[in-house]
C-alpha cells in the first residue's frame, strides 16, 4: 500500500553525532582541533596527509572535512578538487584552514571549498563555522532525502496504477468481443469511450514511468543502427487512421543526399526514437484541424549548427495547426508544462522527448506562431558510434 510522502524534514534521519575528518600534518594543530571539537560532542578522525584523507573519505564519507591547505605531497586544493570531482560521494562541506593571504582563499573557494578560517584561529570562530557548515550539510541531506522519497513514491505509484489499468484494458477488450455475452449496440459506444479513456490514462502512466526512469538515471538504452526514414514511415502508417479521420495530408520529404561515406542510417535506441517521433506527429495531428503535416529529413553540417561537434540529421515535423504561444514555447519541454490550449495533454510527452534526444547527444527545438502552425526540429548526430 502506498504511504504518503513525508515532507517533514524534522522526521528525516539525522546522524546521532556528526563526524568530522581533520586533515593536518602538524600534530600540534591536530591536538588543538581535537580538544576544541571533542568538547562539543563531535566524532573525530584524523589524517596527516591528503592521500590518507581521501582513502578515509572514500571508505566512509564524514559529515565535514577540516582541511589544512599546506601539506606535503598533496595540498588542500588538490584534495578539495578530488572530493568535488567524485560524483559517487555525497555532499561533504569542506572548511579550509590557511595561513596565507587572500589569494589562497580565492583559489580554495574556486576549487570547491565551502568556507575558510585563518591560522591562528579563534575557538569560537572555528565552532561557529563548523556549526554553519553542518547546518548546510543537514539541509542538503534533508532535501535529497525528500527527493529520494518523491522518486520512490512516483515509481511505486505508477507501477500500482498500471496494474489495474492493464487489467481493465484486457477486460474491456474481451467485453467488446462478446466473450461474456452479447453486447447491446447501444452499449458499444459507451464501451468504446471507456476503452479510449482507459488507454489514454494507461499511456499517461507509462509516460510518467519513463520520465521517472530518465530522471532517476535508471533508464537503459540499447544503441544500434537503424533506418530513420523507414522508422518515420512506419509511424506515419500507424497514425494514418487518425490523419484520415481529420482529413489531413501527411508528406515525407527526404533531402539527405546519398554519399559513399555514410549509408544514411543513425545509431541509437530505435524504440526510444520511435517514441519521440510518435509523440511529435501525434501532437501535430491533435492540434491540426485542417491542412497538412510535413516531415522533412535534412543533413546539417556541424559548422552551421551552434555548439555542434559533428554533422547532424535534422528531422523536421511541420503542421498547419493552432500554433503555440510565445510564452509557452519557453517552457514547453519542462515537466508538466501543458500550455494553455484546451487540447493540451499531461505535459509529459515533450519533456520525455527532450530527455530521450538529449540522451542521444542531440537536441530538439520548436518554432511556432499562433494560428499558423508549429515546426519541431530534432537534431541527431550521424556519428558512426554513439556511447549510450
Automatic annotation (TrEMBL):
The modification 4-aspartylphosphate is found at residue 68. Pfam families: HATPase_c (PF02518), HisKA (PF00512), Response_reg (PF00072). Residues 19-134 form the Response regulatory domain. This is histidine kinase. SMART domains: HATPase_c (SM00387), HisKA (SM00388), REC (SM00448). It comes from the Bacteria. CDD domains: HisKA (cd00082). Residues 156-384 form the Histidine kinase domain. Coiled coil: none annotated. It catalyses: ATP + protein L-histidine = ADP + protein N-phospho-L-histidine. Its EC number is 2.7.13.3. Keywords: Kinase, Phosphoprotein, Transferase, Two-component regulatory system.
Amino acid at each position: 500500500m502506498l504511504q504518503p510522502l513525508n515532507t517533514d524534514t524534522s522526521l528525516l534521519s539525522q546522524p546521532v553525532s556528526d563526524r568530522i575528518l581533520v586533515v593536518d600534518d602538524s600534530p600540534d594543530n591536530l591536538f588543538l582541533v581535537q580538544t576544541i571539537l571533542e568538547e562539543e560532542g563531535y566524532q573525530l578522525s584524523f589524517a596527516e596527509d591528503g592521500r590518507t584523507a581521501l582513502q578515509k573519505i572514500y571508505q566512509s564519507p564524514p559529515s565535514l572535512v577540516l582541511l589544512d591547505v599546506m601539506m606535503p605531497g598533496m595540498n588542500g586544493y588538490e584534495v578539495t578538487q578530488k572530493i568535488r570531482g567524485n560524483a559517487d560521494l555525497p555532499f561533504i562541506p569542506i572548511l579550509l584552514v590557511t595561513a596565507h593571504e587572500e589569494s589562497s582563499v580565492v583559489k580554495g573557494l574556486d576549487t570547491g571549498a565551502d568556507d575558510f578560517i585563518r591560522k591562528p584561529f579563534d575557538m569560537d570562530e572555528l565552532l561557529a563555522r563548523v556549526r554553519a557548515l553542518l547546518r548546510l550539510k543537514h539541509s542538503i541531506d534533508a532535501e535529497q532525502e525528500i527527493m529520494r522519497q518523491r522518486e520512490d513514491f512516483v515509481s511505486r505509484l505508477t507501477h500500482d496504477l498500471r496494474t489495474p489499468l492493464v487489467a481493465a484494458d484486457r477486460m474491456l477488450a474481451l467485453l467488446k468481443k462478446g466473450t461474456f455475452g452479447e453486447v447491446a449496440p447501444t452499449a458499444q459506444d459507451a464501451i468504446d469511450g471507456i476503452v479510449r479513456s482507459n488507454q489514454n490514462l494507461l499511456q499517461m502512466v507509462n509516460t510518467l514511468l519513463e520520465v521517472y526512469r530518465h530522471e532517476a538515471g535508471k533508464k537503459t538504452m540499447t544503441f544500434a543502427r537503424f533506418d530513420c526514414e523507414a522508422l518515420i514511415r512506419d509511424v506515419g502508417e500507424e497514425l494514418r487512421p487518425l490523419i484520415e479521420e481529420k482529413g489531413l495530408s501527411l508528406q515525407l520529404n527526404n533531402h539527405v543526399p546519398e554519399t559513399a561515406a555514410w549509408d544514411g542510417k543513425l545509431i541509437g535506441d530505435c524504440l526510444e526514437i520511435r517514441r519521440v517521433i510518435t509523440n511529435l506527429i501525434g501532437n501535430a495531428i491533435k492540434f491540426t484541424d485542417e491542412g497538412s503535416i510535413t516531415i522533412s529529413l535534412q543533413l546539417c553540417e556541424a559548422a552551421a549548427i551552434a555548439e555542434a561537434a559533428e554533422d547532424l540529421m535534422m528531422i523536421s515535423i511541420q503542421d498547419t495547426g493552432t500554433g503555440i504561444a510565445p510564452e509557452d514555447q519557453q517552457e514547453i519541454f519542462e515537466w508538466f508544462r501543458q500550455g494553455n490550449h484546451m487540447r493540451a495533454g499531461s505535459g509529459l510527452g515533450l519533456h520525455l522527448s527532450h530527455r530521450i534526444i538529449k540522451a542521444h547527444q542531440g537536441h530538439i527545438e520548436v518554432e511556432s506562431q499562433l494560428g499558423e502552425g508549429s515546426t519541431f526540429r530534432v537534431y541527431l548526430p550521424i556519428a558512426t558510434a554513439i556511447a549510450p
